[in-house]
UniProtKB/TrEMBL annotation:
Keywords: Glycosidase, Hydrolase, Membrane, Transmembrane, Transmembrane helix. Residues 175-353 form the Phosphodiester glycosidase domain. PANTHER family: N-ACETYLGLUCOSAMINE-1-PHOSPHODIESTER ALPHA-N-ACETYLGLUCOSAMINIDASE. It comes from Paenibacillus polygoni. GO terms for molecular function: hydrolase activity, acting on glycosyl bonds. The keyword Transmembrane applies. It holds the Pfam family NAGPA. The chain crosses the membrane at residues 7-28. This is Phosphodiester glycosidase family protein.
């Protein structure tokens, strides 16, 4: 019993320091505290806020003034632009009207010499006026044409060389409003081929042939202006930029002056049905188609008579086209002239006009 008591005391004395240390640690330990720090707002002192606000207000006032000034400036500029545009348009209209006056005066001069048209075709693309020609020694028709659109005049030529058709057939097939026979032709094996240099769609149909035996080319360029004359080199004709054209003989007028008519063509035949094309200073075209009973030289007009007629009418350049039984004039689906063969002759080329 004594031994056990002693043992207990010994154990208590042995462990007492450790127990005390543990108690001390437990009593002295600080509780764990977690601090959640919120962002701290930086406050601008009240004087600085007032100053910044006033600065912003001042800037806004300035911007408003500038905006009002700019708006006012834009409005004044717009008003000035509109006013200037109206003035310029008025000047343009006046200039256009003034520009048309000489043209109108010139046209009236032409009209006074031709008389009153018996038939008129007028569209956005073309204006055609038909007149009767009857000076006593011969009779026929004159057709004055204003091309408002260059494409309103074209040339009919079948893709198959050697084929031919009447002017009426060409007009109807092409949907044209008018047409005349064009260049001459060479006949071989029952077929008719276009004579010498012929241009279609800007291309040479059978190549370029230098002008020989008084032959003259006549056609139109891309601007819708009549071109023609004698060409001894392809380069010379290329410079004219022909879109289409055909060849016959002779040339009758150049730059408002009569050209020399070769004696051969004055008398072979002397009188005959004729087809002639020419132009005025303002690029209007004049076509003469003269009737005759046959090709024996006893009826129709001489080239000198037509040359004089063209001169008095003020034509600048003029070219004789194929005549005799080839002469034909079609307008509004009907044959206007009286073909000397009794019927329209089939030829390779025709000049057509479109509404």
């Amino acid at each position: 019993m004594i031994t056990v008591k002693r043992l207990n005391r010994f154990l208590m004395l042995s462990t007492a320091p450790f127990v005390g240390i543990i108690l001390c640690l437990l009593l002295l330990q600080q509780p764990l505290v977690i601090n959640f720090t919120e962002p701290v707002e930086q406050f601008v002192p009240s004087n600085d806020i007032r100053s910044a606000t006033e600065g912003i207000k001042s800037d806004l006032d300035t911007a408003k003034v500038l905006a009002e000034s700019t708006s006012s400036s834009i409005q004044r500029t717009t008003e000035l632009y509109n006013s200037t545009s109206k003035t310029m348009q008025s000047i343009a209209n006046m200039t256009a009207a003034q520009a048309k006056k000489p043209e109108a005066v010139y046209n009236r001069r032409i009209q006074s010499k031709l008389g009153v048209p018996s038939e008129v075709v007028d569209s956005d693309r073309i204006r055609i006026e038909l007149f009767k020609v009857n000076p006593g020694t011969y009779h026929g028709f004159a057709m004055k044409i204003k091309l408002k659109d260059p494409s309103a005049m074209q040339m009919a030529l079948d893709d198959k060389l050697g084929s031919s058709q009447t002017t009426l057939q060409a007009v109807l097939r092409g949907g044209a409003v008018a047409g005349i026979n064009a260049g001459g032709y060479a006949e071989s094996g029952g077929k008719r081929y276009p004579l010498s240099t012929t241009v279609q769609d800007g291309k040479y149909v059978t190549g370029f042939h230098p002008s020989i035996k008084d032959l003259a080319f006549v056609g139109m360029n891309k601007e819708g202006k009549l071109i023609g004359g004698k060409y001894f080199s392809k380069y010379a004709l290329d410079q004219q930029e022909p879109v289409f054209g055909a060849t016959f003989v002779p040339m009758l007028m150049k730059n408002g002056k009569k050209t020399v008519i070769p004696s051969k063509w004055k008398n072979t035949p002397r009188r005959a049905p004729r087809t002639v094309i020419g132009n005025y200073k303002d690029d209007q075209l004049l076509i003469l188609v003269i009737d005759g009973y046959n090709e024996k030289g006893s009826s129709g007009a001489t080239l000198e008579e037509l040359q004089h007629k063209l001169y008095t009418l003020g034509v600048q350049d003029a070219y004789n086209l194929d005549g005799g039984g080839s002469s034909s004039l079609v307008l509004n689906g009907k044959v206007v002239n009286e073909p000397s063969d009794g019927n329209l002759r089939k030829v390779p080329t025709h000049f057509l006009f479109y509404e």
